[in-house]
Amino acid sequence: MGEVPVGAVITHGHRIIAEAYNLRETLSDPTAHAERIAISIAGRSLGTWRLDDCKLYVTLEPCAMCAGSIVLARLPTVYYGVADPKAGACDSLFRITNDRRLNSRATVQGGLLADECGALLSQFFRRLRTPTKLS
Questions:
Q1: Which of 106, 9, 14 is nearest to 56 (CA)?
Q2: 19 catalytic, yes or no?
Q3: 13-17: long-range contacts (C-beta < 8 A, 24 or more apart)?
Q4: Residue 112 to residues 7, 53, 56, 118: CA-CA distances in angstroms?
Q5: CA nearest neighbour of 70 among 82, 57, 81
Q6: What is the C-alpha separation between 24 and 57, in angstroms, rounded?
Q7: Which of 4, 11, 62, 115 is deepest in the core (most CB within 10 A)?
Q8: 3-class secondary structure per residue, 86-122
Q9: Confidence (pTM)
Q10: Which member of 3, 35, 61, 116 is catalytic?
C-alpha cells in the first residue's frame, strides 16, 4: 500500500478491541497514524473516550500527536517496538506521556519485539531507496 508499516493494537482485559495501521498515504491525511486510528476505534468499541483500562501496543515509538492522543484518551500503558530518534515523543525526543504537568500519564515500555519491528521498518525504507529497473 506504500504506507510506513506501523501497526497498533489496543486491548481491554484479555480482548483486542482495536487494530489499525498507518493510512496517511491512502487517506491523504497527515493524522492517519496507526495509534490515532486505533484509539478512535477503541473509544467507539467501548462507548467512551476514556481508555483507562486499556493497553496500547505499537510497532514504533509514538510521535508527539499520538503521544498527546494517548494522554487525552487516558491510556495507562503503552508498549512499543522500536524507538524513533527523529520523532519519538514517549522516550526519544520528548516524554509527553510522562509529563507531570498533564492530568494523565502513561507507563511506557519500549523494546517489545524491537528486532522484528526494526527489521520490518528497515526493510520498507530500504525498498523505497532502491531504484526500480525498467524492463
A1: 9
A2: no
A3: 13/53, 17/41, 17/42, 17/45, 17/46, 17/54
A4: 13, 20, 12, 11
A5: 57
A6: 19
A7: 62
A8: CCCCCCCCCCHHHCCCCCCCCEEEECCCHHHHHHHHH
A9: 0.92
A10: 35
